[in-house]
Design a protein that fits this description.
- One of its GO terms (molecular function) is kinase activity.
- With 239 residues, the chain is an alpha/beta fold.
- It has a single domain, classed as Endonuclease, Chain A.
- Helices cover 32% and strands 31% of the residues.
- The strands form 2 sheets. The chain has a 7-stranded mixed beta sheet with strand order 5-11-10-9-6-7-8, with helices on both faces.
Length: 239
């Protein structure tokens, strides 16, 4: 098993995002651009009664989540502050994005990958326990996220980071560093959370072209277990 083989074995399920009575066509276009590389269809709809500008995510006929159109637009266009978050008290991942799990994606750039990572990181922050395993490709990229990960650790979460050892993080009790220079560590971007009482989740993607990633995220405990099991078997000893 490798991280790449886990990605290749995943077949994502589809979702439908219905935008009811939108008043801003640019907002709808922004959602279409965001979800066009994911297994999510964006449709416009109307209701005889009810508010304008709201969004409903469905799996077939099953309701999954709803959101205000402008709130979701701000998140997917990176205006909500999630990219630069240092904690999750003032910012929060919209429920619609949280429920677009078990879907696959292609051609995600760096900003979209950060936004997807925030979903898993927020789960760890709010759980207040468990272990968070994050692959940065290069350890030097952890510097940009240091304050956020410090806040997550302050909530009682054990943090493991993986990457090519091009930087030595400060020694601290809450951090376990796995500095390895292997092809899959250089290529993979992952955030996997081993929750203390259920709620395991993971994001895993591979860089197919420079700054272009393909992969999935999931709340399936078995699939998350595959990711965590491989990481522990292959990189269990901190370097």
């Amino acid at each position: 098993m490798t991280l790449t083989s886990i990605i290749e074995d995943v077949t994502g399920t589809g979702r439908t995002l219905r935008v009811y009575d939108p008043t801003d066509p640019n907002a709808v276009a922004a959602l279409e651009r965001h979800f066009e590389v994911q297994n999510v269809a964006v449709e416009e709809a109307t209701l005889p009664e009810g508010p304008d500008d709201f969004v409903v995510l469905q799996d077939g006929d099953e309701f999954l989540a709803a959101a205000d159109l402008e709130t979701l637009r701000r998140a997917v266009t990176f205006e909500s502050g999630l990219l630069d978050a240092t904690d999750f008290e003032s910012t929060q991942v919209p429920d619609v994005l949280r429920h677009v799990s078990d879907t696959t994606f292609t051609a995600y750039g760096k900003q979209r990958m950060i936004l997807a990572s925030r979903e898993i990181e927020e789960q760890a922050y709010r759980a207040g326990g468990g272990q968070l395993h994050s692959g940065f490709q290069r350890l030097s990229l952890l510097r940009e996220q240091w304050r956020l990960y410090e806040r997550i650790a302050d909530r009682g979460v054990g943090v493991h980071v993986y990457g090519v050892p091009d930087w030595r993080p400060p020694e601290t009790e809450w951090l376990t560093v796995h500095g390895r220079d292997t092809p899959e560590i250089r290529r993979a971007w992952f955030v996997a959370f081993d929750a203390p009482e259920g709620g395991d989740c993971a994001l895993l993607a591979a860089e197919d072209d420079p700054n272009e990633f393909a992969g999935f995220w999931t709340y399936d405990s078995s699939l998350t277990g595959d990711v965590l099991g491989h990481l522990r078997a292959e990189y269990g000893s901190a370097q």
